[in-house]
Amino acid sequence: MIQLKNLSKVFRTELIETHALRQIELQVSEGEFVALTGPSGSGKSTLLNVLGTLEHFDEGDYLLDGQSVRGLSDRQLSALRNEKIGFIFQGFNLIKDYSLLDNIELPLRYRGISASERKRRALEALELVGLAARKDYHPSQLSGGQQQRVAIARAIAGQPRILLADEPTGNLDSLMARQVMELLEQINRQGCTILMVTHDPDQARRASRQVQIVDGQLSDAAMYDPLAVKLA
Amino acid sequence: MSLHLLLKSLLRRKVVTLLLLVQLALTLALLVNSLLLAGQTRDKLNEPTGLDLPHILQVQLKPTTTDLRAQPLLGDLLERQLAAVRTLPGVKAVAYANQGPVRQGGNQGNLYDPNDEARTNVPSIPAYIVSPDFFAALGLKLLEGQLPQTAVPLDGEVRSPMVLTRSLAEKIFPNRSAVGLDTSYAPVAAVVEDFFGHLMATEIMYNRIQVAPLLGVDWGYALLINTEPSATENIRQQLPDLLRQIDPNIEIFYIRTLKEQHQRLYSNEFGLATLLGILSGLMLLVAMVSSYSNAHFHALKQQQEIGIKRALGASKQLIFLELLSENWLTTALGALLGVAAALALNKMLASVISLNALSWWLPLLVSLVLLVCVTVATWYPARIATSVSPATATKTL
Amino acid sequence: MEQFFYYVKVSWVSIKRAPLPYALTVFILSLGLGVFFANATFYYQMNSDPLPHKSDKLFYPMTLMVPYECNDCLPPRIHSYSNVQKLSASDIPTAKVAMYSSDGYLRLSSSQAPTPVSIRITQPAFFSMFEVPLLHGSVWSDDKARQELILSKQTAEKIFGRSNVVGEKVLLDDRHYTVIGVLDNWQMLPRLYDANNRNHVNDADQVYMPLETGYDYNYMSNSQSHTFDDTDFRQLGTQGRTGALHQLQFWVQLDTQAQQQAYRQFMDNLVADEKKAGRHQSTPNNQLVAMRDIVRFFGGESADIKAFALVTLLFLGVCLFNASHLSLNRYLSNQYEFSLRRALGASRLQLQQQMLADVLLMTLFCTLCGLLIAWGGVELLNYLWPANRLFGRWDPTLLLLLLGLTLSSSYLVTLYPSLRASFGGLNQQLKE
Ligand SMILES: Nc1ncnc2c1ncn2[C@@H]1O[C@H](COP(=O)(O)OP(=O)(O)OP(=O)(O)O)[C@@H](O)[C@H]1O
Ligand SMILES: [Mg+2]
Questions:
Q1: pLDDT tens-digit profile of C240-280?
Q2: Cys-Cys link to B49, which of B196, C131, C301, C368 (CB 3.0-4.6 A)?
Q3: B83, B216: one domain
Q4: Does residue B261 sit within a domain?
């Protein structure tokens, strides 16, 4: 369902050009759980942002469900993000001023779903992450792990087909991290495609496929032989 | 975008929002009332006066020696002055008068129908003592009777006949012609069209005129000159030298058109309206600065929030609209409060100056103006805020 | 002290980091203060009491002794000559004075061009009752008519080129007079002794003439005169002294409660006797108004200034709201730093001292800008309402008031935001 063709991304500042992504070729099919690994600064987050259409790319092409995202307007891209893609960030990125429920309802709201339906789905998602009892809390009243679970609930409330997670457990202790991982696996089992950036080899191993980026390029091993990465 | 969420986020910033609301309300209140006052002043300046204000000149002057201030020298001086002014090109008519029209107050007297003093007495009427050309000098239309052609002394055996303006004649002699009837002072010779006399008189348009020699001019006197429109300014320039040539023992206090005289009458109101206007402008400026800084600060603080929203599928347009509508909402709420504040301020101001009651459309109009200003002020910061890259904004520190 | 300079430096650095919001805050606050202060100047000066120790002892009596019948009228504000004589015929007041104002032309000789002057025609008690300072010479020894004038200092200097001109001769309206006194610089503000017709906002008069001389030479009042019978105003010296030609103002000095009570009684008796004698028919309506209330009594308060005062107060309110709003935003954007500093061990006290430095700096800027704006405002008001121009000036009290106001406004504007920043939940801020 995701197809990257010879995709490149360059960051240009006055001083330097950073080739964050170079000629990426990547295919991800429906239902996969892909772990993205690689050293710091290698371009993992950039890749995820490009996949999530938060960032434009310079060369190559990106087909989502066989359709190129090149040349789509801001409004079309927004709609695409809203309907097909869910995000989970390392820093949770919940909106402070909103209650948990309002936070989760937000993407549904953008989709124009009715209030009752919105609430039902948001509660369902909160239920799934085990925080339904605190629906009226504000993010600052939760622990980090709880906040991340709310972020996951928000990401899945809109029933996206793709979930993009950038180091979702980066700020959590191992127990919390395991809980979050289990949650993600559960979501994956329900048919949602997941791409997750992680530094944790154990987590990466639990994915159905691992992709490694080094210096903006997919390393060969990762492209053809997931096992090779594991050994390396 | 939803009202519910907007309200919620406003409520979470109670103090800031409250400050903004109070300020918007006060701005609206002040704007509304200054507009009201400005309109009122304009109406006063445009009120009918019955006179060709811009083309009638009034010279206010006084002899500087005691002999010249009393008869017989005074009569001679007046004759010489009138004759000299008459020769100036563009002068249609010139007359002397103990006082000019279009004034705050001056020489006044009462008048009534001797058969019915209680009902017809008018206490304060400007009393003019003038030369025969007074009516031509003011361009007054004769309505009935005959204008006195010669000056009849006020302290002589024969009473100097009186000319009344229309509304005064109707007040003292309702439903009948006043001509030939006797008043408490003298019989009525003629009735002329209304003109603006004294602001402080019983009624602005009440005037009584007697054609008579001036007895004494300790308070000075006026020369009234009706001019061709094209010659007014020219005549005004020539007058001081001309009059001093006739007799140097005079002090000329001023030479004004009646239009200037009229404007001076309302200079206090004009001043207040101007001040309130300036203040309203400043207030709008302050409101705009506040909206701008609020939006700007907000956008900065909300960068992350906006980034998140963009990631969750809000388009740039939607975010822009959201920021604007937040300001619109506060403006609308402020305007609502402002209507109440405007009414209160109107009441308070009306207790110290004369001020009309508010009409319904004025607050509406001003709210609209406020809305436009707030929108303009919010536009730029909102544009900047929407162009924030979601990828950067959602990045963790 | 050194610590204080450190705090000021920190404030300055934080201002420099984001100069625009700070400049806007100062601008808005000074705008509100300046506009308010410009109008307050007039309001304060016009309502000030020029003789605070005496303004409750000088009284303006009024009676309804007039030849017309009226049963619910206020008495006329001005007196006839004969009524003044009746009201003066009492030993109760410590002092009493009648007066009016007129115009004339002053010169040294008939060959000179005349100088128009305003004349106060009055009695010797005027100078003691209203504490008029005399520079040279003396005032008239009694109330009799005489060819003697007292000049203001400026007038003496203008006519003679010097101030000590006692004994010199002048021509006033072509009559010869001797100068017997010259006043020192004097301008009672507001001129409460002449409050009728809003004359209290005018300049002091230039020439002073004995009352009887004024009547003998037929000087008419230039402010207000009223004939209630057929008195010929050209016969002031004869008919004017007996008829109902009203033009005089009359003041009595009643130092004690007892004197005031007694004089009231005197007025009541006088009016009752006159009525009994058939000299008037109206129901008595006697008034005895203290000098400090006279402007209000005559309805001469400046409605425009009052209305504008109300509005400028509102404007100040708006500006205060706005400035605190701006400043709150500024502090909130520094909040993280604030919290960090507290986390690093700065005590609340230290933060508050920091805040104090902020307040002082803000006061400094706002006073400077505010004064500038106020100055412009006073100029504008002088231009729009030239009648009040005498009142557009500052004295030390007023300036101190401004400073106090600025300080408290700056304090207000800084207080809440910095409280929010320094007392808000510490952990919550760091977490956010
Ligand atoms: N907005 C940007 N402007 C300029 N350069 C950028 C920008 N964002 C990222 N880069 C550069 O692009 C490269 C890839 O960054 P990216 O954030 O994708 O790395 P990463 O693999 O996610 O690293 P980490 O594991 O530390 O999160 C880095 O060299 C970074 O400096
Ligand atoms: Mg990264």
A1: 999 999 999 999 999 999 999 999 999 999 999 988 988 88
A2: B196
A3: yes
A4: no
As given in the structure block, the two tokens for residue B66 are 């005691």
pLDDT, residue B292, reads 84
Q: Which residues contact B224 (CB under 8 A, 6 or more apart)?
A: B56, B57, B58, B94, B95, B96, B97, B100, B134, B137, B138
How confident is the model over C334-345, as a mean pLDDT?
A: 68
Q: Is the CB of A46 under 6 A from ligand 1?
A: yes
Share of chain B above pLDDT 90, in %: 45
Domain range for residue B137? 65-248
What does CATH list as the number for A2-231?
Answer: 3.40.50.300
- Dihedral angle at the C-alpha atoms of C209, C106, B222, B208, nearest 10 degrees? 10
Q: Are residues B124 and B243 in the same domain?
A: yes
pLDDT of the residue at B1: 53
For residue A46, the ligand closest to its alpha carbon is: 1
Ligand 2 centroid vs A166 CA: distance in angstroms? 7
Whether this prediction's pTM lies above 0.95 is answered by no
Name the closest-CA residue to atom 20, ligand 1.
A41
Cβ count near B43 (within 10 Å): 10
DSSP B126: E
pLDDT in tens, B108-131: 988 999 998 888 889 899 999 999
Look at residues B182, B214, B248 and tell me which one is the last residue of a structural domain.
Answer: B248
Residue A104 CA to residue A85 CA, distance in Å, equals: 14
User: With bands split at pLDDT 50, 70 and 90, how would you rate the model's confidence at A220?
Assistant: low
The verdict on the CB of residue A20 being under 6 Å from ligand 1 is yes
Number of domains in chain B: 2
Q: Band of the pLDDT at C335, cuts 50, 70, 90?
A: low
How far is residue A200's CA from residue A205's CA, in Å, rounded to a whole number? 9
Cβ contact A203:A188 at 8 Å: no
- Give the distance, in angstroms, between the CA of residue C363 and the centroid of all CA atoms in the same chain: 29
| 3-class secondary structure, C233 | coil
Cα–Cα dist B346/B359, whole Å:
11
Ligand 1 atom showing the smallest separation from residue A199 Cα = 25
Q: Of B234, B121, B246, B236, nearest to B184 (Cα)? A: B121
Question: In chain B, which stretches have pLDDT less than 70?
Answer: 1, 396-397
- B138, B243: one domain: yes
User: C97 C-alpha vs ligand 2 centroid, how far in Å?
Assistant: 95
Q: Determine the Cα–Cα distance for residues C259 and C101; give it in Å rounded to an integer.
A: 29
**Which of C336, C430, C431 should we substitute to test contact with A (largest number of A Cβ atoms within 10 Å)?**
C431
0.90 surpassed by complex ipTM: no
- C-beta A216 within 6 A of ligand 1: no
Domain match, B339 and B297 both: yes
- Pair (B171, B312) in one structural domain: no
Burial of B284-313, coded b for 16+ CB within 10 Å and e otherwise, reads bbbbbbbbbbbbbbbbebbbbbbbbbbbbb
Choice from B303, B388, B389, B392 to test ligand 1 binding pocket (greatest atom count within 8 A of CB): B392
Alpha helices in chain A (DSSP H): 44-51, 74-84, 100-111, 115-128, 144-157, 174-189, 201-206, 220-224, 226-231
Measured from the Cα of A49, ligand 1's closest atom is 18
- pLDDT tens digits along A124-153: 999 988 888 998 898 888 888 888 889 989
Alpha-carbon distance of A163 to A193, in angstroms, equals: 6
CB B27, CB B370: distance < 8 Å: yes
Give the tokens for residue C336.
């993280």
Residue B59 in any domain: the answer is: no
Instruction: Tell me whether residue B158 is in a domain.
Output: yes
Distance separating alpha carbons of residues B322 and C295, to the nearest angstrom: 57
Residue in A94, A97, A109 closest to B9 by CB = A97
Distance CA(A232)–CA(A216), nearest Å, equals: 18
The beta strands (E) that lie in C63-125 are given as 79-80, 95-107, 115-122
